[in-house]
Amino acid sequence: MRVAVFSTKPYDEASLRKANGDAHELVFLEPRLNPRTAALADGCEAVCAFVNDDLGAETLAALADRGVRFVALRSAGFNHVDLRAAAELRIAVARVPDYSPYAVAEHCAALILALNRKTHRAYNRVREHNFALTGLLGFDLHGRTVGVVGTGKIGVCFTRIMAGFGCRVLAYDPFPSEAAAEAGAAYVPLEELLAASDIVSLHCPLTPETFHLIDRERIASMRPGVMLVNTSRGALVDTAAVIEGLKSGRIGHLGLDVYEEEAALFFEDLSDQVIGDDVFDRLSAFPNVLITGHQAFFTAEAIEAIAATTLGNLSAFASGGAGLHPVAAD
Ligand code: NAI
């Protein structure tokens, strides 16, 4: 099967080539997928796409016109796919539900540790031979309360890590799991979690119900000086409200691996350009904000697993007309 692989970086090409062997004809393309670049999939039965590719109705229609019948996502999240349009156009969609929950949970812990102990600032100070400690005061994680919103695969891993630090873990999920309880989480209503937690970490998917889950009102209900961490999807958080919270001091630390408007920025080297996103620049100017560019998933193990599952989806579609891990509209 001929497959157009969009948003290809060198590490994607290497891992996908290795997992593919000679099974499919993979056409590696650097551009992001959108209604204009869909033409690059001419002659392909399938496309392979990543988190910031545009898989809205217009793109899907353009792909269908060119004979595309399958979308293999290289991600767990599928909030960027118009699944209804895909169904109407008879395009099947599959994803990689599970590659390394450890990668994301560990990165989340890294953000928390760095923010708390100001490692990002200490690194620069020491390089300039500034060995003063003023401004670097942290707190013991031991004994602190951590609120985990969403206790799926990543939330459970993260619960285990934080329990290992000696934290009390509170959790909220509309579908509580035994695994999270076994890992040490105590389920409480969301409002109770927000009011009691020193650190709030988001691990739920982006859906219409979770859009701006953390808004002005919920920020006001959090503990003064709370640390908020989002490694899930940018739009779980109302960025304007978070900036207000940082300015007032209600939010004491903010760790982000995802950002509402990341599609225009992340995964590209823009270091020699003036970026037009004032909100991002305001956020990154706070000393108590640490942002990484959607790299939580980025470990050798995860990349290998993403490639293996993606090839599994492609081969299953080629032989049976459906991916191994299909996603469909409700
Ligand atoms: P999962 O599907 O195993 O777990 C998600 C959990 O969220 C489920 O238990 C679900 O019941 C819960 N949930 C649904 N609606 C909720 C709500 N309104 N409030 C609280 N919980 C709710 O997913 P997994 O693998 O744990 O991933 C979680 C999220 O992490 C993904 O949706 C994705 O957005 C993000 N992610 C980020 C990556 C990164 O590199 N930054 C990489 C991989 C995933």
Strand order of the largest sheet: 8-7-6-9-10-11-12
Please identify which CATH superfamily of the largest domain we are dealing with: NAD(P)-binding Rossmann-like Domain
- As for the number of domains, it is 2
Radius of gyration: 21 Å
Structural class: alpha/beta
Helix content: 25-40%
CATH topology of the largest domain: Rossmann fold
Reported CATH architecture of the largest domain: 3-Layer(aba) Sandwich
Order of helices and strands: EHEEHEHEHHEHEHEHEHEHEHEH
Topology:
Blueprint (H helix, E strand, L loop, with lengths): L1 E4 L4 H11 L4 E4 L17 E4 L7 H9 L4 E4 L9 H6 L3 E3 L6 H17 L1 H9 L17 E5 L3 H12 L3 E5 L5 H6 L1 E3 L2 H7 L2 E4 L13 H5 L5 E5 L8 H10 L2 E6 L21 H8 L3 E3 L8 H21 L10
Parallel strand pairs: 1-2, 1-3, 3-4, 4-5, 6-7, 6-9, 7-8, 9-10, 10-11, 11-12
Task: Describe the overall structure.
The chain is of the alpha/beta class. The chain has two domains: 126 residues, 3-Layer(aba) Sandwich (Rossmann fold); 191 residues, NAD(P)-binding Rossmann-like Domain (Rossmann fold, 3-Layer(aba) Sandwich), CATH 3.40.50. The chain is 37% helix and 15% strand. The chain is built from twelve helices and twelve strands. The chain has a seven-stranded parallel sheet, sandwiched between helices. Strands 2-1-3-4-5 form a five-stranded parallel sheet. Strand 6, helix 6 and strand 7 form a beta-alpha-beta unit. Helix 1 packs across helix 12 and helix 4 crosses helix 6. The longest helix is centred in the C-terminal third of the chain and has 21 residues. The mean pLDDT is 97.
